[in-house]
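Researcher: Here's a chain I'd like modeled. Treat it as a single chain, no partners, no ligands.
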Amino acid sequence: MTFSRARRQPRLVRMATGLMALLVSATISSIADTFPQQPGIKILHYTFDVTLTDTSDELNVKDTIDTQFLVAGVSGIDLNLCNLIHEPQAPDRLNPCLQPVPRARPGREAVPAAPAVPAPTSVGRGMTVTGVVANGSPLSFEHRNNVLHISVPAGYKIGDKFSLTVSYYGIPATGLFIGNNKYGDRVWFTDNWPNKAQNWLATIDHISVKAPKTIIVTAPRGYQVLSNGLKTDETDLPNGLRRTTWDETVPIPSWQYGLGVAAMAVEHFGRSNGTEFSVWAFPQDRDSAFKALDQKAASIFEFFSDRIGPFSYEKLAHLEAIGGAGAAEPATTIFYYDGSYGAESHEMAHQWFGDAVTERNWDDGLAGRRLRNLLRLAVYGARGWPRCIYGWRQADSRISPELHSLTSCRHSGS
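Model: Modeled as a single isolated chain. Structure tokens:
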């Protein structure tokens, strides 16, 4: 890997090094990641076959998991998948399988006369598993407490490969928004961060478990389908349906398994070092979305490519979406919820730090986010754009003077 221009821009390197030294110390005292690891299993590939309809919010999924055993004697595999909820449950922000409780924005108090908004019910949401098979034979399984435990037949040795397919259906409580956009058009958009993919996909839903994936979506023909990687197949089927396949060959964690399904206008607006850029927007927002993202996206991409390293993925798509907050950075496909296009440099920095280079556990998430904020400052400063950054405490005394000089809210050029 070469960094031809990085040698001429040492300030960015010093900036990132200083920030990481600060943030490593800041995460030492954080609560330990207690996710139950499965060191005897390696996920080689996921294939998700998902069917969507206009008549129901229910998904039907066939999920094929290709694995390899790293130790002998593995007797079972645990996948994260939210159970169907039968009874009301108390609100719990730490439970990824419940609809989130509305949270007021800081500094905005509720109107005293307004009635309290009840916590959303998640009854009737979650997944029901109908079967697990391997090599044509059914496997024993137990689905309880949002974990699908699958029994593995005896006799597998170190290095052996094992494939199984899980079939299930249901309506996700969160993780995948299903509903109408601001124009009343039906849409499906993911918001999996940090561990909400288990609402609609059976995976090992942890940031450290990275695997390539294929998603095959069968949906009514009037929708565009976008996901990670490259589109490898699109076939019109009987009864007004279309099957679309996207392949992501680079390993990524399950929270990055993005999906957008909607009526969309699409613009392919350039290419850099073999990476194609595109914008996907609601048809009514076509002109404003294309203009907002065409102006800076290619320049930001080239800045990061030149000073950090080559882009790891097949494409970079920018997608107008709803169902989340701000923006999100699944590999190759950035989601801008409610038109939050001003976050493009932060989300593009994620493609290098957070997507290609991934935190080993949840404790490191804050350090990675602050690094990406600083990279945003660097690209804005180099391009002469406004360098004021949201959520950044300029007066943090632990940051070096050089970092302070990059965080001031000012115009460094026209």
